[in-house]
Amino acid sequence: MQLAPAREESRTVTLEPILSTIVVTVRSGSIPVADAKVRMSSRSPETTGETGDARFDKVPSGTYTFTAEADGFARETQKIAVKPRDEKSAETPVPVNFNLKPQITVKINGTGQAFTGDVVELEAEVEAAEAVKPALKYAWRLAGNNTVLASTPKFKRNLVHPGTYVVSLVVYVHRPDTGNVLLGDAVHKIVAEQRRISVSLSGPGESKVGEDAAFRAQVKQLSNSDKEATYTFGWSVDGAKFGGNGDRESLKVTKAGRNTVRVVVWQAVGGKWVKAGDAAHSFVAAGPDPAKGSISVSGPSSVEVGDGVQLNAAVGDTNVPASALYYSWVVNGRRYNYSKSISFPANAPGTYRVTAELWMKYQPKPVKLAQAFHSVTVVRKGEKPDPLGDLMSAILGGSSKPGTSTGTTPTRQPDTNIPVGRAYTAAKLPAAQFSLNGTWNAVDSKGRFNGKMSLSQSGSSVSGSMQTPGGSIPVSGSLSGKTVSVILSFNSPGVINQYLQDMRVSQAVGSITAKATFTIGTNNNELQGTLYPFHVQWNDDGKTVTIKKKWQGGETHSGNPPRSFTLRR
Q1: Same structural domain for residues 181 and 143?
Q2: Is-contact 406 394, C-beta < 8 A?
Q3: Minimal CA–CA distance to 183: which of 133, 235, 110, 239?
Q4: Alpha carbons within 13 A on the beta-carbon side of 151
Q5: What is the pTM of this model?
Q6: Which of 96, 367, 408, 565 is most buried when burial is the number of CB atoms within 10 A of its CB?
């Protein structure tokens, strides 16, 4: 058997590579970047959609260069190796991630020229992609101070001192993986000049004691400023304070001769009152007209034993206000009450000699303006009066009749001596009723809590408000005996910042209170007291302000102890 040799057979097999899908995600921080151009080596570019994704299909294994770019962002490139894959793993796309850094320009808009006391506002102008703007963060600082003073697109500052203020702004974004990423910065200079003013004071050249003299202070700006400053006015006459804090005041003239009125103008600068100027005006006051008055007595001239006697006094021509007058009665040499009338029983026959006196309240001693005399004869039931006998008794210097006086007849000439006697000195004239109602000028011994305080009293409760350079604050408290206690509530960062001079700290504080107590003395228009100012301790790590402790509502701290506080109206 012959075997034939085998034939060779050959076949060609083509192995298709397993292709991958690549998904490129373009973001800036956590923000998807839409409409970004993504290039993969030599392939045609793809554009990202709203989610920031672009897709490349049927990509064989190998190393590829990917580039992502978009308007408003820096271009980035990275190389990615696509490794051979089996059919199962090829079902999962290969991820490629880009985190683009925004490209921005930063500019600070605002004035470069200002005056002390001005509140300057600067604003950041940032050109950036719209999608990125909500994520931008801001840090405003002053040169030489690393403390962040504001973290919003706007920055406000009260220029307390003259000089050059260098303001820096840093714009950044925060990324969880890399932390803060600086995007841009800018610097702005402000030159602050001392505000210059002139003060003039007008008023009468002549006046008279007892009259009201009106004065007006006028402030003229010598600095070329388009911002209106806040001023308050302090008034005095011959060194004694009077009036309120307005630019117009009225003075009750009390001294004859030369009087000098002075006004000091204070400007609100950085939560404090700073002296800006002053002016003086002199006038001559004539003496007052002499006080005068007359008094008459009406009532019966004769009664019977057992009857009641009532006499009434009436004031005639006088130039003294009724509130400054009072009465005094003397019956048979003994001083009685201080009312407009007197009543007494007719217990025994005789003559009652009555003197009615008209007095003017005056310091240091009261002054008797006039007196009137009246006699009342008391007879037994059924008898007739004996005026001749009474007259002879008075001439002879006495009488044995009950109820008659054995002393001399009182003189008719007015005197200025204070009447003496047990009945007089034991009596008390009614004191003027005290009320807190009205507008008071609050004067802090350090000048930081000065302002105008409007108070309303209802029983023992006190409420109102106080006007400060930073705004109005509510006031509440109580009146107990001769002591007034009030709480000053600072409920807004803007008001608190005029004292702390740091808006970030003021915002962290939120609200805080101070306490003041006053004692009611002899002058109902001036209350001397004590201010218990607030005090704050905090930590600032450059990012967050943490309030450690507040001293408020009367609590004291050695760094800001209690001090003198006065209310005047």
Answers
A1: yes
A2: no
A3: 133
A4: 14
A5: 0.40
A6: 565
Smallest CA-to-CA distance from 75 within 106, 105, 102, 42 is with: 102
CA atoms within 13 A on the CB side of 476: 5
Question: Which residues touch 61 (CB under 8 Å, ≥6 apart)?
Answer: 17, 20, 82, 83, 84, 85
In degrees, to the nearest 5, what angle opens at C-alpha 180 toward C-alphas 177 and 185? 150
Task: Give the strand pairing for 367-379 and 302-304.
Answer: parallel
Q: How far apart are CA 56 and CA 48, in angstroms?
A: 11
The count of other CB atoms within 10 Å of the CB of residue 568 is 17
The count of domains in the chain is: 5
Both 397 and 359 in one domain: the answer is yes
H or E segment and range at residue 260: strand 257-269
Q: How far apart are CA 116 and CA 225, in angstroms?
A: 10
What DSSP string runs through 57-114?
EEEPSEEEEEEEE-TTB--EEEEEEE----TTGGGSPEEEEEEPPB--EEEEES-SEE
- Note whether residue 8 is domain-resident: no
The mean pLDDT of 104-114, rounded to a whole number, is 90
As beta bridge partners, residue 546 has 539
* Cα separation, 319 vs 132, whole angstroms: 82
Among 501, 505, 432, residue whose Cα is nearest residue 469: 501
Per residue in 39-92, pLDDT (tens digit) is 998 888 999 999 999 999 988 888 999 999 998 898 999 999 988 877 777 778
- The one-letter amino acid at 124: A
Long-range contacts of 127-133 (CB under 8 A, 24+ apart): 128/72, 128/102, 128/103, 128/104, 128/183, 129/28, 129/33, 129/70, 129/71, 129/72, 129/73, 129/102, 131/28, 131/31, 131/32, 131/33, 131/34, 132/28, 132/31, 132/72, 132/102, 132/104, 132/173
Both structure tokens of 301? 């001239």
Q: Which residues contact 147 (CB under 8 A, 6 or more apart)?
A: 141, 502, 504, 540, 542
More confident residue, 388 or 548: 548
The candidate with the shortest Cα–Cα distance to 331, out of 297, 365, 370, 368, is: 297
Residue 116 and residue 95 share a domain: no
Using the predicted structure, report yes or no on whether residue 217 has a pLDDT greater than 70. Answer: yes
Say if 457 falls within a structural domain. Answer: yes
Question: What is the spatial distance between Cα 450 and Cα 94, in angstroms, rounded to a whole number?
Answer: 71
Pick the closest to residue 171 from 109, 130, 111, 128 (CA basis): 128
Residues 6+ apart with CB under 8 A from 415: 368
Cβ atoms of residues 538 and 508 within 8 Å: yes
What secondary structure letter does DSSP report for 412? S
In a domain, 17, yes or no: no
Question: Which helix (H) or strand (E) element contains residue 388?
Answer: helix 387-396
Specify whether 250 is located in the same domain as 136: no
**Residue-number span of the structural domain to which 480 is assigned:** 438-568
Q: Which amino acid, 343?
A: S
Burial 104-119 (b: 16+ CB within 10 A, else e): bebebebeeebbbbbe
Q: Do residues 308 and 400 both lie within one domain?
A: yes
Domain identity same for 443 and 519: yes
